[in-house]
Amino acid sequence: MRILSATSQLLDSALKAILRFPYVFMCSATASALGIFLVHYNDTVDPLLRDQIGHYAMIAGLGISLFISSHLYAERKGSFIQRFWPMFASVAILALCYLDFRHFYEMRNDEGAALRFFGYLLGVHLIAAFFPVRNKRNSNAVWQYNRVLFLRTFTTALYTGVLYAGLAGAILAVDTLFSMQFDERIYADLWMCMAGFGSSLIFTAGLPKDICSLDDNHELPKGLSVFAAYILLPLVVIYGVILYAYEGKIIANWSLPEGWVSYLIMAFSVVGILALLLLHPYGQTEEKPWINRYTRNYYFALYPLLILLFVAALVRIDEYGFTVLRYSLLALAIWLAFIAIYMPLTRNRHIAMVPISLLILLVIAWFFPGTNAWSISVSSQKARLKKELTQLGLWDANKQQLMAGKVALNDSTSMALFEQFDYLLDKHGPNALKPFMVIPDSATTNGDYVEEKRRRYSRYMAQSYMENELQKIGLSRYSSFDVAEAVPVEAFELNASTKLQSLTAVPKGNWAWTTDVSLDNLLYLNTVHLEFDSAQSVLFVYQGSKTWEFPVLETAKKRIGALKYRPYTNERYKLGNQGLIFSQDGCYLDIKDIDFQWTDQRQTWGIKHLNGTLWLAQD
């Protein structure tokens, strides 16, 4: 009877949660159903439909958090308009998110689409952090509400993981013991159900029915204070010590900071602010006065690190211009500076300002037309490119068109300028190349391939058109090394030589012998053992206890710009008369000719054949 009673209570709680948050469960059920569909038909359904279904599932996932906020807000309002305008607004937001995401996807900007979706995900969670709470100036109400969300998130993750593991184990046991021969996709189906509908049910079932009562709730869970004080705060101290030591090193050496230090400062700031927010009400009690002292000192300790953060960001921007990530980094640095000044001035009375200000920043920096990171990045890179082209005599400002220069460009300048054009096309689409060039639709569409039907243009065809246009003014993605047609794979051999070849000048040194080298995987000659690692394209030379290691491919990549990219034809690239020189103690290798070939399986270049001369010193 107790089991029946417990089951009845469980079903009753689930039904109440569904009736309380109907739109949430519409979204979660949709996300789960679409996920299951893709598990079963991902390889058979039309690619265009498959991608759209995946995007619908992602938007439905966003709707879960957004409609939780709308439902909680509507529960404390009386009139129909007050209760339902958040629902209509949520539907409009999801529709705009879908259209914006599809735009970036169809324009072949996969990185941009991923970043935008991350922005949507962060935005709907920031809305959930403050929107439903009445009297947002009451820090206790905001804190208690977010405390509930924080604990429900951990509880949901734990329950979902345990339930999935238990049910998956039960299915495996039945399948093994009774030879049921279940389709292996049943485990993926189970996960889709648990991650979507199941987790939403667990999360919403534990939300308080009257969040307005949180204004008067002064419950302070001990476990939360232990987590913040003894786990998060020590991490903050460790990060702080490292960053201050590094800042001291910069001052002592009077050198510019490393670029990645920005991410370390971000981690220090975010973890520290999270710890302060979790400990906020505990500092109001007489039992832990040290929390207030720590809070004040933390924000003051941020100021020198924020200066370091601004220096690291602005140096890169000044040198290379704005990109999406650099602009986002600078915007986040400005937000951190604002919080570090605002919170001490208001004595932490308005903690809702943290999610509100971050949401405003997110909208301005990532979504608002004209000020978002993509718009600023395009404007910055185009201005930088136009300035460089003008200085080199490649841009006619009057006619607003590219022109051939009077002086031939060296390889490094040519490739650097080409990479800027390639960045604009790859990250922002063909329209970003205006006014330098206009790529017509006829040159960017190709309906012969399924992949191209899913996007608005063919990236490869657009790049090919751009490459042809830039070659007219002397810009190329490749160096001036010879380009040869693909040839059959040659035999590999190692031949001893009794005399030095006229092809290569004899290097300085006391050499015992020399040999022409044409490499295979495992070769021996007298006391010399040559081994070529085809996976890494590294040549090893062994003689007795001596070992020499030559990273042939990595060195070639630094010399040949073409090896940075995947080719769009079946060509090979050769060094020609400009060889690669490797010199280590007692060993000298001069490679005159290398055939490279792209490998689709490993998605990297490989070396099919090379010719050169090897010298070994006299012992």
What structural keywords apply?
alpha+beta; 17 helices; five-stranded antiparallel sheet; 619 residues; four-stranded antiparallel sheet; 12% strand; globular; 13 strands
Characterize this entry briefly.
The protein is an alpha+beta fold and 619 residues long.
Structure characterization notes:
With 619 residues, the chain is an alpha+beta fold. Helices cover 58% and strands 12% of the residues. The strands form four sheets. A five-stranded antiparallel beta sheet has the order 4-5-13-12-11, with helices on one face. Helix 2 runs antiparallel to helix 7. The longest helix is centred in the N-terminal third of the chain and has 39 residues. It starts with a helix and ends with a strand.
Write the H/E string, N to C.
HHHHHHHHHHHHHEEHHHEEEEEEEHEEEE
Uncertain runs are 447-451, 480-503, 566-572
Binned, the helix content reads 55-70%
> In terms of structural class, how would the helical and strand content be classed?
alpha+beta
What number is the mean pLDDT? 79
Number of helical stretches of at least 4 residues: 17
Strand content: 5-15%
Strand ordering within the main sheet: 4-5-13-12-11
Total number of beta strands: 13
Beginning-to-end CA distance, first to last residue:
91 Å
What profile does the largest beta sheet have?
5 strands, antiparallel
Radius of gyration: 31 Å
Shape: globular
Task: Give the secondary structure arrangement, pairings included.
Elements: H1 2-20, H2 22-41, H3 47-74, H4 80-106, H5 110-130, H6 139-177, H7 185-205, H8 222-253, H9 261-279, H10 290-320, H11 324-345, H12 353-367, H13 373-391, E1 395-396, E2 401-402, H14 411-428, H15 450-453, H16 459-471, E3 483-484, E4 493-496, E5 511-518, E6 522-525, E7 528-533, E8 538-543, E9 546-550, H17 552-559, E10 572-573, E11 580-584, E12 587-599, E13 604-617
Helix pairs in contact: 1-7, 2-3, 2-7, 3-4, 3-5, 4-5, 5-12, 6-7, 8-9, 9-10, 10-11, 11-12, 11-13, 13-14, 14-16
